[in-house]
Amino acid sequence: MDKWSIFQEDLNAWQDDINTQWLRRFLQTELGIELHIDHIKSLSNNGAHDKYNWQIVKAKDNLSKNNNDEHKLEPVVSNQSLLMFLDRV
């Protein structure tokens, strides 16, 4: 893979991260509750830091998860909805 392709992949990942942070902050303001971006499969359990492994959840729920991937959280924004949003921005 050439340097330009690697740069494009990094740039796309960075844009997904920024857009997800923007959506989290927007919803947090609109809903009046603290939200986190949760890794569905935790990083400590070899989960990826990418849009395919993210969901937006209530902060208090995410803090109770404690890297336990068996503890499923009710998302405010599901991964599927997040992917649809990111594909449109």
Task: Please characterize this protein's 3D structure.
This protein has helices spanning 3-31, 59-65, 79-88, and strands at residues 35-39, 54-58. The chain is mainly alpha-helical. The protein has one domain. The protein has a two-stranded antiparallel sheet. The longest helix is centred in the first third of the chain and has 29 residues, at 3-31. The chain is globular, with a radius of gyration of 14 Å. The chain starts with a helix and ends with a helix.
Please tag this protein with its features:
89 residues; mainly alpha; two-stranded antiparallel ribbon; 3 helices; globular
Structure summary:
The chain has 89 residues and is mainly alpha-helical. It has three helices and two strands, in the order H-E-E-H-H.
